[in-house]
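Reopening this ticket.

The earlier resolution said the output was attached, but the attachment link was broken on my side. Pasting everything inline this time so it's all in one place.
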Amino acid sequence: MAVDFKQPRNHLREQLWAAWGANERDIGEDDLAAVRRHLLERDDIKGDLMAWSVSTGRERRIKISIVDFLSQRTTRLRPLPSTVDLLYQTIASFGPLDPLLKDDRVTNILANDWDQVYFDRMGEGQNIRLERAFRDPAHYRAVFHRIVSVAGGIINAEEPCADLLLPDGTRVNASMPPYTRNYALSLRLFPKKRFSLAELQARVALNDELSSYIQSILKARANVIVGGAVGTGKTTFINAVLSLLPPDERLVTAEDAPELRYDDRHWVAHYTRPPTAGETG
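Inline output:
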């Protein structure tokens, strides 16, 4: 179905739809449940609804499905552009985090409360405050729980803290009262692109002398310790160094969380796990 998000040209119809729009500012829970149920029943949309990735195509597919449903007039809602957008934002969007998730340069997103969202962006700095945060606390909590759900976790008053992993490797720490004063959310994102040592040199992240030294100690199979604060580029650097290994050499890694990326070579990745009952650590 071709979808036109513009208002109808008929003047009387415009007035009627505007009247509907005035009554739809507060969409009821029954309306939300009906639209959400319709989306989940569509096999071609269900994956988009539960996906972590944020893209223009995903947004358009979901909005078209919402328009299809509202056009059937099975609810009091009408397919007004403002209504469709509000339903999408409420049901399927990550709100003001969407632009940050689309930006490959963003490495951290930290939400202390609905109106206190900060992020780190490569080349611009750390703890940059997001000017346009969530609409209100309810909007923030909805996105908070949606992210936890997409990561396959559960968080409630009995288990108010969760450390989770999203499908693309993004690390999530979510906490809520009484564990924290507010609903707090931390997202640690990792670059989708793996830089080579030469590319780091081109970006003036290291000079020729240091690059040659790194290659020599790698050939010597010396032990190396890489240290630094969060967001200083440890993972990016290690990825670049290990990419120098011969492709026929088996690579075995052990990590707390999957941050290294070597799917194109002979690689076995191990991950740590928390101790189970009876273990001391």
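Reporter confirms the inline version is readable. The CA atoms of residues 160 and 179 lie 6 Å apart. Strands lie at 106-113, 116-121, 125-129, 161-165, 171-175, 184-188, 251-255, 267-271.
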